[in-house]
């Protein structure tokens, strides 16, 4: 597991690298407001990276942890590349071009799983804040994107949970974009 200091340093390094041409495992700037790349769990090890992955491009598809290098063993029709608002901006987190990370049914309860859904302008279920402290917070709530039980087994569903205080003190809620 990475220490908070390493995560912050890594995020700074990725921010500087955001101007690189994008590709699998690389970051790409889309203006000053978004970053294209993978969302990596701080629970990754030095040898194996774990990322958010979408099961497919269908509405209601699951969002789970997958191997960063190759998500196809877990989700053959999936994707693990996302467009994320640059910290500390608020907006939708998208994949497959027009699918957004979405809180299922807008249920604001610990353990509610995430899904992807066709992006809808102003849909509060699809609005997130990438914080300066490496959390991804559901806007207007105190819930953060959370790696369920800290389990990095590919296919483990991603949920929302009360945001850890102080920020980034729970590695299940630390995401490297």
From TrEMBL:
Pfam families xref list: Ricin_B_lectin
Signal sequence interval, chain numbering: 1-17
InterPro entries registered for this protein in UniProt: Ricin_B-like_lectins, Ricin_B_lectin
Keyword annotations of the record: Signal
Domain Ricin B lectin: 91-176
Protein name: Ricin B lectin domain-containing protein
């Amino acid at each position: 597991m990475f220490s908070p200091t390493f995560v912050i340093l890594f995020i700074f390094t990725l921010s500087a690298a955001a101007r690189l041409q994008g590709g699998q495992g690389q970051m790409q700037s889309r203006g000053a407001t978004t970053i294209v790349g993978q969302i990596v769990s701080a629970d990754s090890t030095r040898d194996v990276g774990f990322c958010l992955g979408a099961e497919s491009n269908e509405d209601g598809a699951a969002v789970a942890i997958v191997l960063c290098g190759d998500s196809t063993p877990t989700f053959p029709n999936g994707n693990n590349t996302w467009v994320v608002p640059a910290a500390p901006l608020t907006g939708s987190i998208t994949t497959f071009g027009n699918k957004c990370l979405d809180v299922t049914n807008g249920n604001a309860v610990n353990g509610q799983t995430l899904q992807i859904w066709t992006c809808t302008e102003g849909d509060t279920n699809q609005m997130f804040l990438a914080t300066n402290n490496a959390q991804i917070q559901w806007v207007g709530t105190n819930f953060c994107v959370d790696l369920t039980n800290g389990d990095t087994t590919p296919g483990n569903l991603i949920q929302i949970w009360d945001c850890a205080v102080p920020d980034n003190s729970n590695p299940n809620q630390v995401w490297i974009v």
